[in-house]
Records
---
Amino acid sequence: MYDSDLITLFKTLTAKEVRSFDKHLSTTYRNSKQEIKLYRFLKPYYPQFDHLNLEKDRARVKLFGRHFSKEQFNNLSSILKKKIESFLLNEENQKNYFKQSLHLLKIYRERNLSAFVTKKEKELKNKLASFGNRSTSYYSNSLLFYHELYFHHHTDKIDAREYLYEANKNLEKLYLLSKLKYITEIQFRNTILNEAYLTEEFHEIKKIQIQEEDVVIKMYWKIILLLLDDKNSDFESTQNYINNHYKLEEPKDQVTLFNFLLNYIISKLKTGDLTYANKLQAIYSSLLNISIEQNGSISTNTYLNAIYTITRFKNFESAKSILRNYTSHVPKEEQAEALNFAWLFFYFEKGEFQKAEKYLEKIKTLKKQAFHLKIRAKALELMILVEMNGDAKHFQSLCENFEKYLRRQKKHFGDSNVEGGLNFIKLIKQLYLDEKDTFYLKAKIKQLDFLIHKSWLLEKLNDPYFQ
């Protein structure tokens, strides 16, 4: 069941969505006892779903007995998956009040309900006004609204020319914003790849005057200038502008805006500009706060990525601040694991390997661990041993156990996840146990697509002790 469509979809639900789906399943008519039983069986394993109890045959027999056929179990899983899809569609529709109302307006006009039409049009105009400064929602919804008003067959085209003008104006703004989003993505990729290529679209859009009221358009424009190291742009002013206006953007794109800033900082740090290290905390705090606003909590992955990245660049005071302020927002059942891993990363990067070992031992006692965190723990155990110049036989034994674990999990977690770990084991053994050709190993590390802890391996190869 690890690779079932049901589990794949279930994994994507946020903690808030799981709570809502719980209520949805309990109150929706025509849910069979078997569907509810399967859901209640799966829920405790959310979000990792990596327990052996979830193997298809084991889950089937445990829940319904051997008489319950594989075909019946697959059908039941498919039905529950469809229930989750139905729930997600319903949630999305609830969010999109404007489109629902616009559809109602169309129905009222078709039925000649003039009083209803007048009331709904006024309601929608007020809703558009509530979007405030020009955002993606404003442009797209205005375009739909005025398009519907003008092109409806009951509309007098002569008297409604302003509808056409408004629709056309919002179409142009929506097109410009969409273009800017694409170009921002392209230019960001070019920056990461150290390519100076500029798209033709950029030169085209550069001629357009951005109006002050087009706030969302301006946020993406500022990011493009920042990525280009434009003389009229700087990180602080771009960050401040986005901090002040990001809530006007769609929820999913709010995260994207700060991820652009975060990855820009990391690209600068990788070039050796360590002045950007102190900026990491503010960006991660914004990302964590958005997660709390949107989901009511912070996922373990998001929390640990913040700690890991900040400590990698040796900003330990900022890491402590994240630990103090955000650990309580990780789901309670995951807090012990998250906190132990956070301190493991902290002390490993600080070079206090004996303290890191203590947290590694605590992690080993935890009953539930996500697959990707188990890989991190096993890899860090090897890395600590290398850093402390530990016993070669013990190191070899750990490598063998790690490799066996990865090969056992391959069918459940895919080739790429396992390949990254296997490549790491092979290279760390060459680094620590074998006579090595440093130049060859560096080239090998750089060309591998799937490899965990790549930067650490390269650092060790530059260490005179390993030359």
---
Amino acid sequence: MRDIFSEGLLYLDLLEMYGSSHLVAELCDVAQSNAYRGATSCAKLLSLDLQKQDGRYVATSNQDVLADLRRVNQRLRLRQSGRLRGLIDPHFPIASLPSASADLQLLPKTWLDLATTLQFLEQAILDLAVVRGLELARDCPTPTGIPTKGRPWRQGSFLATVLHEEPLRLFVAAGHPLLSAGALAPADLAAYPSPDLERSDQACWRSRLRPHGLCTHKLSLSRLQPGQWEQQVLQDGWILPSCSTSMEAHLGRPEQGGYTVLPYQLQLTERAVLLVPANDAAEPRLKTLLAPLLNPSLQLISA
């Protein structure tokens, strides 16, 4: 049973998340053949009839058995031993959880929608996740928006807290014509393309950016590849709404990446929000890990 939890189920969970045994091997620092064999052997032992659908491997039989084992495995991680699994949105690669912690395995987000992240949390494949505040805006419980940093709130079946926040800015390639245009208005911005991504937060994104003449051109991404698409749209003369943390992490500092900030105030804030299943928030190892991230005068309450 130990091998099922420590290796087989881990490889199987990651294979379902990413659909690539090569990426699973890289994340676990093992040979690709070992990762794939471990996942498929676990699936065979549990009679899961593992099949690939829409780029991911899924169990088509004994799904209730797999669900029970995942929950047991998570309980063991949260109470006894094993690394907790945390997902980091690429927009906030350095402003979230303590990456040096031996108790936490940070996993990359390679999909576009919030629903997939929530599904993996609910299935006990993930223990916590950092998502963008805009992804939660439609269901935010306060009339004025996301609560202040370090103050937890209930978000459906999850507890949430803001870990990091910074102004949303407009970035363009160095030498862009708008840099010498003087005072800018939405009509000036609308004369140049800006990305309208196919992702779950885009409705909230559009409602905030379109009054500024932004979010004008459809951009389809099957997988998130931070740094690649941003660099391309900047080179093509597009305007890119983003935050400095994300830009510097993926493209380097402005002088290195060949980009700069437009002198235009959006008066919008981008936030990194931590999500934890409410029923797990009081588990000792998770509570210890999260304590330094929260306001000392506040607590995560699961009731």
---
Amino acid sequence: MSNIDRSNVLRYCAIQQLQPYVDSIEEGFPVFKKLAVLVAILAVLAVMLPASTAMGAGTRARSLSMERDFRAESVSSLVPAGYMNIPLASFILSAGNENVAVTMLVFRVVGSEHIAKLSIYHAGNLIKEFAVGGSSPQVIKLNFEDGVLSVPAGSFKAITVLGETYPMVSPLDNEVPIEVSLIGAMGTTPSQRVWDFHAVPGPTHRYFGSYPRFTINSATPSGTLTPSSNTLLAVFDITAVGTQSVTFQELDYVTFWITRSISKQTKTHMGFVLRDEYGIRLGDKLLVGIRENEADLAVEIYFGSSFGSFGELVVPAQQTRRIYLYGDTTDLDDLGDAIQVRLDDSSPGNLAWGINGIGPYHRADVIFRGDIVAGALQR
């Protein structure tokens, strides 16, 4: 096969990998703009795959490969505006039977208009940082000097991509997806040039001006249960992560899951009250029609849901407020009866919050990931 034939084949294969990005352009997108995108891709490929490369020198022969690093990477998360060093993705570069000096990496960044800068780290050391910005998505080609990023034969190196976000400009930007993909790698060995071109997407994150982080406060009770109509069940800290205030107003709520172990139920109702650290009543909930031996109870407390309640909680940016959940435990009066509260990640709708009074937003599946479990109380 001639050098020109081989180059054309390589370009064709690479275009097949990148074609989905072109096809994903919104239906009705002007044809000339589609062509402009395709021309831009071909221009990148012209640099990445020079026609003068010899046949033997361009064979990848599995000497360089790339994949997503599922061991320690950031999972899908919420990305706050105006923050630095946010874990966005991790990738693994592997070498075959020769040492590989990586000379180029190609990234595709979705949500790039909210990313000011990306930094690449290996083993905690900064390898490269580069500006992003611009309309989404951006395809960014990074060149590496010899020896900066080397992969020993038969081994691998893991790289982590950290991001720095722009401050929030408009509430319409909340929940915009952010994703960093590695779509190409090139390098040299003592005997040949090697490469790997295919899309390796990182996790998809969501950009927010701020979001609430819930943690168990040390004042949360555990141990012996003393039944009463107003038992303190759990205390949670709420921190506003981001550059704007997190707000809980009348349409916002927190769903508390109550696990009970009860030997003899005499009542079919159970009341709960939510207060802040100043004792101000934020909302309440009366559960009715509780079935005998019903173990899990979903207690959805809306802010401002009780008569005379203040009904609003504002958590200023990067500050922390506290909420206290009380419940009626008079029915748990037999030896061995127990109760425990958790914030459950089974549904995004287990939480609703606002940002500077605008919302609601629902991402309990991320904010409560792994469940946030308070201490158990037992009679």
